[in-house]
Design brief:
alpha/beta, Rossmann fold, 6 strands
Amino acid sequence: MLVKPTLVVATLSEIDLHRLWDEGLRGFIFDLDNTIMAPHTGILEDHIGEWLKTLEEMGYKSIVVSNNPIKMYTDAAAKTLNLPVIGNAGKPRRKMLYKALELLELEAHQVAVVGDRPLTDIWGGQRLGSKTILVDPLIKEKEHQIVKFLRRLERMFVHPGPH
């Protein structure tokens, strides 16, 4: 099985929001840790905050769906991001992704699932029937050795879509 993201980018700012809008995209389901926030920090970098503000100004709807099970952390992230955050999602299972679509009031084809993990975020988005965008993790040099190993293993199953 190959996981084939719709788009592979190094950073969120490389996503062509105007083109996606023209293609009918109206919302984003984001992963939390290492996608829009450094893992377990609760800190939103300024450039990502500005990018999220641009999304909102353009009319996009956004939500975060995270596998992180720590409710106190995901609640704090929701306040920092000013976005709804669904935690303990169990991606690539679709149950919480469907819940996110319901909260966004959008159909799967109108949404892109964005994340740094091919076998959770991208596979979950594909199973949902959405566009998928694989981003490089925000922090990869400080990760534990097992996480680095798992990332390399996951990338073996990725067949990049068009850039």
